[in-house]
Amino acid sequence: MASRVDAVASKVQTAVTMKGVTKNMAQVTKALDRALSTMDLQKVSAVMDRFEQQVQNLDVHTCVMEDSMSSATTLTTPQEQVDSLIVQIAEENGLEVLDQLSQLPEGASAVGESSVRSQEDQLSRRLAALRN
């Protein structure tokens, strides 16, 4: 329940930020119209620089919000639920995930890592034999 509240709070904060950005973009558009009507290159350049800065600020805010929302939902999900979901999906698709995970050596990053190594070794030997 707490993760849902955090997610909703993050979405509301994102909406508030977007509303502020929309307001700033409207102001920039008006300023750009005024600068273009006078054809003052310095004013146009200044308005465009301000617009770029606001877009960069929006990108930073968006990244921070997405990261915090992601970490909030990730940290609040119990490991048991994650494990049961993996097992459920494996059963639905006829996979033997638990057997493969239990056979995984310490420090290995993937289930098929040892078979990939043996295939690479075999290919290396064949290449060496072809060179001789």
UniProtKB/TrEMBL annotation:
InterPro entries: Snf7_fam (IPR005024)
Pfam family, one: Snf7
GO BP term, pick one: vacuolar transport
Family: Belongs to the SNF7 family.
Name of protein: Chromatin-modifying protein 1a
Organism: Panthera tigris altaica (Siberian tiger)
